[in-house]
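During the no-cost extension, the postdoctoral fellow (Dr. R.K.) reprocessed legacy sequence entries with the updated structure-token encoder. One reprocessed record is reproduced below for audit purposes.
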Amino acid sequence: MAAAAMLLSGATSSCNSEKTPYSGYEKTESGLYYKFHEKHEGETPQMGDLLEVSIQCTVNDSIDIIKRTKNMMKLNEPLFGGDLSEGLAMLHKGDSASFIVNIDSTFIMMYRQPSLPSEFKSTDVMRYDIKLHDFYPEIVYLQGIASQMKMQNAERIASMKAAHADETAKAAKTLETFMQKNGIVAEPTESGLFYVVTEESAGEKPEVGRKVKVHYTGKLLDGTVFDSSVERGEPIEFLLGIGQVIPGWDEGIAMMKKGEKGVLYIPYYLAYGDSGAGNMIPPFSNLIFEVELVDFE
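Re-encoded structure tokens follow.
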């Protein structure tokens, strides 16, 4: 099972002191059976947090559904009463515990199977053994990725410039000439990106890791339009700063306020580099993007 990709959920649990059919286990009101092997104090995960866990799932102590491995999991809304998410929400950092869940509901609602697989019965015992190593808000995790991505991009760009010194010098001169010819006055950022505000806004700027919604029209320096969300009538959405778009976008959109419009003048190495993109964007192409930060969350 592709357990690492599951979005797991969280809920508050309450204990039921009645005797359970599983030795050493207690039962929550929603029907989750649980047994702690190691228990600590402190905070528990909040909805939306990312959890670093070691996890194993077996049926009848003999069939591996998930072989023991270390995974990253997200705590979201519960899928059904007594699912694994309720157990995850009970854990403190360093805790280890076992959870027995309803096998039918787990396969159908969590694993999205049309029915319980024929090799299993509704009376089979499905157990998760979990240790929680750490947890933190998703935004913290994404900001860590963004920091690594920034360093990797810097190394990649330095290598590209060194390997293509003549092309880099030519591209820089071409962009400089274009801006002078068109009366564009702007100071470059440390990376070489230019951003010109065309419509100001009093909105806030998005943090790295936030999902942003952006309208854009992309052009070559000769004015050729190669892509436009405006023409499609649907803005693009992506997580800011983690490499889902070209580096010039990650840097440039982070400079914008919600509702602001502007133009990004992007050197080739912050765009599609020495390879270009498709038939419309040749290698070493400086690009222009008219952009609007429609919203972010």
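The first helix runs from residue 84 to 88. The helical segments are 84-88, 103-110, 138-163, 165-181, 229-232, 247-253. The remaining legacy entries will be reprocessed before the final report is submitted.
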